[in-house]
Amino acid sequence: MSSADLPASIGGAGTGKRPPDEDEGFLGRLAARFTDFAERYIPDAFIFALAATFIVVALAMLTTEVGVGGVIDLWGSGFWELLPFTMQMALVIITGYVVATSPPVYRLIARVAAMPQGDRTAVATVALFAMLSAWINWGFSLIFSAMLAKEVARRRPGTDYRALGAAAFMGLGSIWAQGLSGSAALLMATESAVPPALRTIVAAGGAVPGGIIPLRHTIFLWQSFVSVAVEITVVTILFYALAPVGGRAKGASALGVDLGAPPQALVTRAATPGEWLEHSRLLNVLFGVLSLTYLSRWFWAAKDPLAALSFNTVNLIFLTAGVLLHGTPNRLMRAVKEATPGIWALVLQYPFYAGIAALIAKTKMNAAIAGWFVSISTPLTFPALIAVYSAALGMFVPSGGSKWVIEAPYVIQAAHDLKVHVGWMVAVYDLGEALANLVQPFWMLPVLGVLGLKAKDVMGYTFLVFLVLAPLVLLLVTLLPLTLRYPL
Questions:
Q1: Residue 447: CB partners within 8 Å, gap ≥ 6?
Q2: Do residues 218 and 307 lie in contact, with contact meaning Cβ atoms separated by under 8 Å?
Q3: What's the pTM?
Q4: Residues whose CB falls within 8 Å of the CB of residue 467, separated by 6 or more in sequence, listed in order
Q5: Is residue 17 domain-resident?
Q6: Which is deepest, 73, 115, 139, 246, by most CB within 10 Å?
Q7: Which of 150-164, 364-378, 393-407 has the highest mean pLDDT?
């Protein structure tokens, strides 16, 4: 049954007045006000990229000795420096979409979407599964959660579609970097990925053997698990409390969004003998055997299987899973084609952020800013100050973890100087980085692309989550390292 088959009172057009006995509570009313503000005043995410470019260019000209011409040259030379990383990120999104839209996984999505018995419970459920899936893989979470939100909207057309969209993004707005695809943790655990100069800093004359920080000292610390559990619990409860209901709720139809048909409902067969291979499972199975054999050999040869994880191996794992789960080349190609609209904004904007990153790194602006933080730090306050710095820099460079390469040398050196647990500082960076995603719309774009929403539709909710999580994260990064010993 579609929303068109339901009475207007159930379909959720969101144009009527709230029943007088309906009380959304303080958080619900606050979220509604933030959302109204966002819809009126927040521009498209690309405007953030343009504005950040001009702000950083101006700061570089005013605060460094590079000169006007030098700043412009550094910006231009850095504009294309992250093209390989952009492609990796695009493939994370595409392969995540391919897996999430495969018939077996979408059957799981449909079962989860059928679980909630109320609109608030539905929004909270999407937020919960967004965070749980993000711990496994953030690219998969983006698409899995978006598809879950869309399926919930099909089944419960009266549920607020904006709140569902914001909930679907909560994996990237909270715990993603504390999980198995956390860029900083994977980098520091991979010997071949850590630059020699950084390894020397991490090693600190033998304090950290080999200058490598194993995953057991970052994402697998019990303190890291505690922070993950706390954030998941708080955010799930928060979304239950803030979800609009009744007259304030706007379903997908009220926002002009066509939800379309579920992916598994679109089935085609070979029409001509020439299309037989496109609809045959043979090539998919052969590719799966080849890829799984390679991956088995890759992990078998690694000294530490966890250290063998990288963006490339994760992407290949998800691509292989997508190939096998879709069964035929035709279904796979259709899924990839459907996924590509979700990456257009990333392809457009990431060169702008690459130029910003080049300016911040090559003019030494980052070291100057971080040096100020370190100069006013103590072992107790240092983690919180770095979390704030990481979140602030993430507003200008929403890197998905790549800016850790810029921050790591001085953050790790300062951790050694202040005798703070080195592995915990990776977790601190991750927690701060995720906060920025709640108020910087760049990584919302894949979710918004799938859902047919704009950043302003969801940022009222994500900003409210930011107001709650920011002090909580600062408390966690300050108290939990008291249970850790330097250096690891």
A1: 142, 143, 145, 146, 165, 168, 169
A2: no
A3: 0.77
A4: none
A5: no
A6: 139
A7: 150-164
Domain that holds residue 154: 30-247+269-483
For residue 249, give Cα distances in angstroms to 7, 21, 123, 224, 371. 15, 16, 12, 36, 47
Tell the burial category of 413 from Cβ atoms under 10 Å away from its Cβ (0-12, 13-18, 19+).
middle
Query: Is 71 inside a domain boundary?
Result: yes
Query: Does residue 455 lie in a domain region?
Result: yes
The one-letter code for the residue type at 256 is G
Q: What is the DSSP letter of 470?
A: H
The CA distance from 135 to 102, in Å, is 20
User: Could you tell me where the DSSP H helices lie in 420-454?
Assistant: 422-436, 445-451
Residue 20 buriedness (CB in 10 A; 0-12 / 13-18 / 19+): exposed
Please answer whether residues 337 and 286 qualify as being in contact, where contact means their C-beta atoms are separated by less than 8 angstroms.
no
pLDDT above 60 (res 4) = no
Q: 336, exposed or middle or buried, with CB in 10 Å at 0-12, 13-18, 19+?
A: middle
Number of domains observed in the structure of the chain: 1
Report d(CA 35, CA 30) in Å as an integer: 9
Triad 444, 448, 454: Cα angle to 5°: 95
409 vs 56, higher pLDDT: 56
DSSP code per residue over 134-187: HHH-HHHHHHHHHHHHHHHHHH-TTS-HHHHHHHHTTTTTTTGGGSTT-HHHHH
pLDDT of res. 42: 66
Alpha carbon of residue 5 to chain centroid: 36
Polymer length of the chain: 488
Backbone torsions φ then ψ of 435, nearest 5 degrees: -60, -40
For 163, half-sphere exposure in the C-beta direction (CA atoms, 13 angstrom radius) is 33
- Which is more confident, 224 or 347? 224
pLDDT of residue 67: 87
Q: Predicted confidence band at 267 (pLDDT cuts at 50, 70, 90)?
A: low
3 state SS of 465: helix
- For tokens 């080195």, what's the residue? 422
160 and 183 in contact (C-beta within 8 Å)? no
- State the pLDDT at residue 400: 59
Residue 18 lies in a domain: no
